[in-house]
């Protein structure tokens, strides 16, 4: 049941984060792309469960695809924000900080996945593996804390009468 729960969490997390991007950048984010991303990811995650990674194995494929898609989406939205200069002060924009948090956290998750996979494939002794595993987990925890701090910064931006919150 644990692995089914983590797979469900990955799907729900992706759907919620893509929805925030869609509602925050509605004028540059097509509804067709939104539905294609959401539907494609859910179908891909279900196909991954059925054909590639059974429930007894952690969903590393789904987590990696989620990280790649969210990283690319955050980069694209940040690029469009800076190019269009929609926000006079990016430091007070919710969507800017949200995109930065997503970019920071999910790129780190991809690096952690690569490090842990190479550790499994090329690790020599169990003592070296254990030390490297602890370093990877410390790195993961550090970036998770940074992710939540940046998200907190995003929510701390105060709206003004001429610029209300731009999400939901």
Global geometry: globular
In round numbers, the mean pLDDT is 81
Strand tally, please?
0
The major β-sheet equals: none
Q: Element order, helices and strands? A: HHHHH
What this model shows, in words?
The chain is an all-alpha fold and 168 residues long. 77% of the residues lie in helices and 0% in strands. The chain has five helices and no strands. The protein starts with a helix and ends in a 12-residue tail after the last helix.
Which SSEs are present, and which pair or pack?
Blueprint: H1 2-24, H2 31-52, H3 60-84, H4 94-122, H5 126-156
Helix pairs in contact: 1-2, 1-3, 2-3, 3-4, 4-5
Summarize the structure.
The chain has 168 residues and is an all-alpha fold.
Entry keywords:
5 helices; mainly alpha; single chain
